[in-house]
Amino acid sequence: MDVELAIKLKEENKAFKVEKYKHSYPHCWRTDKPILYYPLDSWFIKVTDIKGRMHELNTGINWKPKATGTGRFGNWLANANDWNLSRSRYWGNSVTNLENRRW
Question: What does the alpha-carbon distance between residue 1 and residue 15 come to, in Å, rounded to a whole number?
Fold first, then answer.
């Protein structure tokens, strides 16, 4: 809290109420440190503009088994939202890089 500003507003009768407020934040279950979310610049792919075409192309693929394209993946495509490329977390599986060199 900016104490000087609070005093000035109170003196000028421009503040209805001045008090300190303790915010509750979610805490990490392992470290018990507060988890704070800060606004970050982000890059997005506007999937909503092309999701109709992606869904159309998906229906033309001969999926084996058929449920691969019509089930979970097909539903995901039909309801796709814009993709955030700037996530600051790790997710998914690592991609193995294999290299075959003949000496």
Answer: 14
